[in-house]
Amino acid sequence: MNALAATNRNFQRAARILGLDSKLEKSLLIPFREIKVECTIPKDDGTLASYVGFRIQHDNARGPMKGGIRYHPEVEPDEVNALAQLMTWKTAVTDIPYGGAKGGIGCNPRDLSISELERLTRVFTQKIHDLIGVQRDVPAPDMGTNAQTMAWILDEYSKFHGHSPAVVTGKPIDLGGSLGREAATGLGVIFATEAWLADNGKSISDHTFVIQGFGNVGTWAAKSIFDRGGKVVAVSDITGAIKNPNGIDIAALLKHKETNGNLTEFQGADVMDADEVLTHECDILIPCALGGVISKENAADIRAKLVVEAANHPTDPEAHEILSKRGVTIIPDIYANAGGVTVSYFEWVQNIQGFMWDEEKVNRELKRYMSRAFLDIKAMCKIHECDLRMGAFTLAVNRVARATLLRGWEA
């Protein structure tokens, strides 16, 4: 099942549980606006290349739309649509005043030089500048993009609209980025995990972890686990996978990754088959890579008792059913990985106020938002007698539906 079908299914289940009016349900499902633009740039060798850029703006009932921009060869409308919708529910779960959006360009950033990436980003911004904005739609980095990409968008947007640091988040610190933003998604995953563990009288130091995807989110999650006394027994990324039943020295692994980049050449662990990472023995599995990695084919073999969805849509609905029947708890993506957008909200607030916070305040506020959201989800689980995924979806859909009705959606 693709990401859009899975997201729609979860939404529709939540809508039925809440007893939403069918017309309102349909209205909440349809995106506010879909943008598709051609981006033609001169390559470094003088030839012209054309790329297709997308921006899906899903909902603005609770505030400006918010969502990442990804540069990836497989960027296509259905996936962008699903991720935009997920952002609407994600921002509502943590109760920050945003709606959802998502964008991207179908390209492989590794095949482009820095100057080509800059030209592509600026052309894309020129095509959508009048449809994004501080109070309209606020982009952020995603797969294949970074703080530098946001700096180019900020600069290009400001040529049309004047200096507007709050138009993007995930910017370099020197241009108004927030301290703590880089670690936010990974740290938010750990705060979500800690909230569930505390609710069950446990702590991170009592558990073993497997992290699939050792990129930005995975490295910060692993570092946080290591610092709290937890054992990371296996990790993987695009270079391969490694394991150590006694726990990997994450501090040493991060140093190795900086200098070498290849996980499989790390001396403090054994090389393993990357396909076996998800089914490796552990207490808590954290998928941090692409969507759909836990499917009906491998769900029965997963040995973790808790899955924390740090990636977007890592678990197919069929796999979710299999895991639930086996008694595996899943902390859903729309809550678990909401730390990034929450700290993006803090960055936006700081930019608007022109008053910056220190990192300690950012992390303290992030923990407060993630802890409060968990209690809100638990309350919905109790009311509707459902699992955490439906608890999060009913919480989010209910908040967006109420905001939509209060604004007078049929007016």
From TrEMBL:
It catalyses: L-glutamate + NAD(+) + H2O = 2-oxoglutarate + NH4(+) + NADH + H(+); L-glutamate + NADP(+) + H2O = 2-oxoglutarate + NH4(+) + NADPH + H(+). Residues 178-408 form the Glutamate/phenylalanine/leucine/valine/L-tryptophan dehydrogenase C-terminal domain. Substrate binds at K66, K90, S344. The record marks D142 as: Important for catalysis. SUPFAM superfamilies: Aminoacid dehydrogenase-like, N-terminal domain, NAD(P)-binding Rossmann-fold domains. Keywords: NAD, Nucleotide-binding, Oxidoreductase. The active site is at K102 (proton donor). GO terms for cellular component: mitochondrion. The keyword Transport does not apply. InterPro entries: Aminoacid_DH-like_N_sf (IPR046346), Glu/Leu/Phe/Val/Trp_DH (IPR006095), Glu/Leu/Phe/Val/Trp_DH_C (IPR006096), Glu/Leu/Phe/Val/Trp_DH_dimer (IPR006097), Glu/Leu/Phe/Val_DH_AS (IPR033524), Glu_DH (IPR014362), NAD(P)-bd_dom_sf (IPR036291), NAD_bind_Glu_DH (IPR033922). The keyword Nucleotide-binding applies. NAD(+) binds at T185, N216. GO terms for biological process: L-glutamate catabolic process. GO terms for molecular function: glutamate dehydrogenase (NAD+) activity; nucleotide binding. PANTHER family: GLUTAMATE DEHYDROGENASE. Belongs to the Glu/Leu/Phe/Val dehydrogenases family. This is Glutamate dehydrogenase. It comes from Vicia faba (Broad bean). The lineage of its organism: Eukaryota, Viridiplantae, Streptophyta, Embryophyta, Tracheophyta.
